[in-house]
């Protein structure tokens, strides 16, 4: 039996951590992620199945909701990203679990390697992220549980607010991770300077 | 008692000095003993034209130069006239300097907006060899040929002389500063901000608007161009509730600063009004510092999205057009007050005030109060107001009612003015300062960017905003509301309206008591002498050297519409966009043509309101960060191997993997190609677009988007797919594999991954919404590696788990399967070949891509495994005649590429109808062929035109082109693909590949496009 | 310019791409061909009006939810009068046609 293959992220841990001026940036990759999209048009049946399995209502607006063991982030009309709670890829294969549970009600696609999650947190993180994202992150417009698909500079991202610290998670396609990380750190430096 | 700190001991404008020595000036001889918002306890040293001076924090370069008695600051654009300082703000047309040195040198910088910092270096521009002795001022003598339209008239013939002779001379003589020669070392940022109410301008109206909206709880952004908010409140002798106006400003700013939802952005110019409540603003973050600190941007380009906007940008004073009105020492009346009151500087020692309005009479009082003699007050109004009479009397000045300044006297500085009274008597009054005012022009610029034209109000002698962009209100002097009390009230009103519109409950500001401020005015655009030749040039546009006479010339030659006037004379086309010129010009044109000012109209004003550096527009997107880089999962591995990378769209792909001993890239590529043909090679193909398609109607959907048939593709097999645009031309190609009953994975070309996704969504959401199908990109999910060559199966056998049979029968060409490798690792295996060899593509979740490629290298070592890059990939596909980017260029059809037979006749698909147009299937269209030079070592240039042998190299005999070419180590010759008229019928014919860029003509033989293994034996091995 | 995506909310122009007239409908493409409906096809693929005022257009929110939208835009002022998901528009149109 040959040796198993070892995983490697696009950001090396040493290069990726940033902690200055009250802003921390960390690589939060590792959770299993799968795309879920309604098939067959029976939304009520999909809702019921999800509610029964994970105790949560699939959001119809750009929100992220936590169920038991699984979190769903709105990712477009009748589309979601399902994220495992575990921050590593232990536990049963998410794509398999979802396919088994949802059957023909939804298309399920593994996205765990497709996306890298960067977390930015600390008092200055809203200002930092505001420099990078063209959306309004003011608490009156965007609060914990809200998510948005948008552009960070020229890079497509999905962002959501985790808590009012504030903490934000930013999902980006893996191949862009280093570019986004560079831009995020630059924005953090700019925000630290302004503060 | 002298009003000055020290009496000057030498001429205020010193003569030339030997280079290398920097004589010290007496300390700021024109600094007033008191007053001003400057820090008198701190000295700031600066250099102008190589001379050392001092100023104080709070000074601008202009105020510091004036404090040091420097009045000659530059030479004009066309005539090289000596020029001084006209204004105290961003409208300055004359005092333009080169700021800083070396890579930070910035031309055409307005001395009136440069905040003084220690060590500042600036130099005058447009003079040769020195400012005082400018040899090119002879242009002034040549002025008969340099009048309006001279470009069009003078240098007509011969054409060749233009480029070689006229233009270099004109460029040397006319022009402004020099840009830096080196790359800008500073960095720039871009950011977006959101607010309920954007307030533009922090004068009385803007501050009142911000306070009113801020107190209501609205999110407010207050932008102020100047370093110090306050506007005219900082520049006037004015009390609010009996206290100095600056105290009121300080209190207002303190209150705004304490509001969490209010953001005051000073040094920030709002330069444009865009659609949907979007505004462009430029924040000067470090322009006022001696050196940019690390991590500090020089400027930030803000995009401000505001639900409502209050424009409170104030007004700009108008000069009067009279002969010699550009002499250093002639200044706008309001600017004189700014220098006295805000900067504590005496702009002269003996002044004349020339105006048509009451506002300018404040200048008379302020001059007198500062101890500056006022020799005369020239009020153009036949019946001067009580304000004028009182001001003149109090200042001990002679009042010339109904008078005019008919000309300015002096060369490099004003020495006297010639005055004519209402009775026509003339007199010469010695003076070194003329404060002039023709009234005020509201700053309407931001109201016009959507095409709105301002409206002329005769009682104000000014244009005010009329049709406003959606969501914008205007307050204070920008709306023609004159006077501090009125501006405060109007600002509060506008702030309340804006906040109310955003859903906030507002209450009006309690108004401070303000002394009466008379503002009576009667029109005066120019003096009667302005068109006379003898009295000299009367300037309308100082920066572009356009005179009243030029406007007369434009009228005479028929350029009477304002847009024609502008282009014919270049009026308003300099970097100041004619802020002090345009209204005077059109008023003069109105008068010359016997029309009213509203009939004459205004030119369209476009963004930006102030010049914006290209660097600020580029922001951080320059150099290596011009665009984001996408990296493949094997990027680090390839880097370790010393790969050379190339950009494929945003992707960085390994171009080749040079080894020590390779003589050059060609040898490397030959080695890589040969390894694939004789042993095995690996190449990261992750960059190909991958789209997961699921749903009961997935097959039916593929039938629509691909030109060929899909219904019969079994699970576990892949197929080549050709995608057309609706106009019938080829859009993209790739292979799509059926992984399950209702699941497919489509691949696209690297370049078209995004466009294909967009196209599929279009087909699904608009054309065929009833198909039950879903798509999601998995490009980044899977690391995909091509393993190609006769030994590829042997290598894969080392890592694929033994449960999977890789034999040709079990896993034939175009097979696809979900498998496991390396002891249970999930993976996908496709038997696809771009090279024509036995080949596979193996995919693993991207995090394992790095480990997979290293494992393949390790397991493949006994078989001679060799990594190859995009260059070898290109050679391999040309050898097999596979079309790629150069052939799929958006102008080729399936027939052109030899794939006409793929077009299904039994179904509807995107592009079907249009692809069958006779013109698109005409065999005379350039069609895919192989090309081989008659002499194998003749370089075949891609892009060369194909011509019949012996025919002239003309468009008429052009029959096609070389689309791709490479040296083929497998064939031992240069080979190429091309598109040639009637190509497939011409195999064996010799044609010429004509490359006019490289100056080469190569004889080539037309051959079938497959150079290696035409029967496909290797592919199916 | 800012467009309110029915799914994502108001966003800047750079998140969207423009396609064009949303009032055109694709001619029947099923066999028989060739030549059938050539004029209708030429019109669908190539001919476009240049209306002044409100115009129904197809836009794609590619940097957001990937929805195709029917945007009603005043071509003179760039005012966005309405936005709907294209899939809802086409379904409603078909329903109307059937009724």
TrEMBL record, chain A:
Domain of life: Bacteria
InterPro entries: SoxG, TrmE/GcvT-like
Identification of the protein by name: Sarcosine oxidase subunit gamma
Species for this entry: Gluconacetobacter tumulisoli
TrEMBL record, chain B:
Family named by the database record: Belongs to the GcvT family.
Region (Disordered): 1-35
One MF term in the entry's GO annotations: sarcosine oxidase activity
Domain of life assignment: Bacteria
Keywords: Oxidoreductase
One Gene Ontology term from the biological process aspect of the record: tetrahydrofolate metabolic process
Ranges of biased composition (kind: Low complexity): 18-27
Protein name (record): Sarcosine oxidase subunit alpha family protein
Phylogenetic classification of the source organism: Bacteria, Pseudomonadati, Pseudomonadota, Alphaproteobacteria, Acetobacterales
Residue span(s) of domain GCVT N-terminal: 635-907
Automatic annotation (TrEMBL), chain C:
Residue ranges of coiled coil: none
Gene3D superfamilies per record: Folate-binding superfamily
GO terms for MF: sarcosine oxidase activity
Domain of life according to the entry: Bacteria
GO biological process: tetrahydrofolate metabolic process
A Pfam family annotated for this UniProt entry: SoxD
InterPro entries to which the protein is assigned, alphabetical: SoxD (IPR006279), SoxD_sf (IPR038561)
Name the UniProt record assigns to this protein: Sarcosine oxidase subunit delta
Originating organism: Gluconacetobacter tumulisoli
Lineage of source species: Bacteria, Pseudomonadati, Pseudomonadota, Alphaproteobacteria, Acetobacterales
